[in-house]
Predict the structure.
Amino acid sequence: MKASSSGATSSDEYSRYLQDRIKQLEETNTHLKERLESTEREGRYYEDMRTRYESEIRKLRSELEKLRAPPLIIGTVVEIIDEKQMVVRSSTGPRFVVNYSHFIDSQEVFPGAQVGLNQQSLAVVSVLSSAKDPSVYGMEVIESPDAEYEMIGGLAEQIEEITEIVELPLTEPERFARIGVVPPKGVLLVGEPGTGKTMLAKAVANRTSATFIRVVGSELVQKYIGEGARMVRELFELAKEKSPSILFIDEIDAIAARRIEDGTSGEREVQRTMMQLLAEVDGFDQRGDVRIIGATNRPDILDPALLRPGRFDRIIEVPVPDERGRKDILKIHTAAMKLKEDVNLDILAKLIERATGADIKAISIEAGMFAARNNKNAIGMEEFERAIKKVKKSKQWDYLTEKESGVMFA
Ligand code: ATP
């Protein structure tokens, strides 16, 4: 009995032991499974990281190669011989027959297109974006400029003239056709900087729903042979594409100054650019819907060829405003401002003799800034006085002292 009870006990113990062991092993198994899963997760994570780093390395390597690659020479396509070869002119002048990559889209290459050439073989490697892209040469293209005649002060006569010369031929061409008169092609606005020449041109564009294209003459002066002339050609093409359009060439004197034979290649290049400008103006249909407006503050140095009939033969002088003009401009620029009762625009107009429209705009803004800085509710004469002093400091013009002008600030 004893023996059997002890036997039963030991088998119970053994079975408990086995159960415990099974449980233990199951726990170990679960634990191992969890670890395996987490290791697998980690593995996947590191695999992802590796792929990411590899792609970053590839990107950096290719960037490094790009930086190490020798620069391309800029050239212009002269003629396409066949599917393999073309004639290009390099920026230094000579022409070459070169090969071109078959990766180059044949639609993109045409005589006059700009291309990148390999330094050694001069093979065409890439086609550069068209310079007609306005941003390339800092042109300003505005589909509908927001300037209006009412925003221009003191230039009533000039507005009338420009309406006749530029606006009417665009809006009512039949008026001219009926009587057999050919409207002038180009008009030249002559006046000091900041007198409102650009504004006038923009206002005409707005009135005629024409696209306003502005380019600064100095931007057309390029270092490389033929470059400036090509830009002029493309500028006129752009104007035709965007027609009806107003092509405004600011600082036209930069490319149209009287010829001085100094024999330098830079001088010759400026001449070439001007010749192209004259050729474009001459080849222009006067009855077309593109009008050219030039602007300069140095009419004395202009080449007379530019002013010949059929070119920029109409000159509109845009003067520095007189007292009445100054008051008008002050009125325009302070129209939206809150002014104190003491502000007398007549007195201010007297005080700012020789100020241009741009100066008056700057004075109005400065006066507003002073008032805002001092947390005032409205702008008073005191702020205008400080603004005039501040703007005057940065300008050539001088304003009359209180004594000279015979007026006193309130
Ligand atoms: P630049 O020769 O330097 O190009 P500009 O004669 O073309 O000068 P604008 O650019 O037209 O001068 O003028 C600059 C700013 O001055 C304009 O945006 C306008 O706010 C102001 N301004 C100039 N003249 C007048 C004016 N007559 N009436 C109202 N505002 C004017």
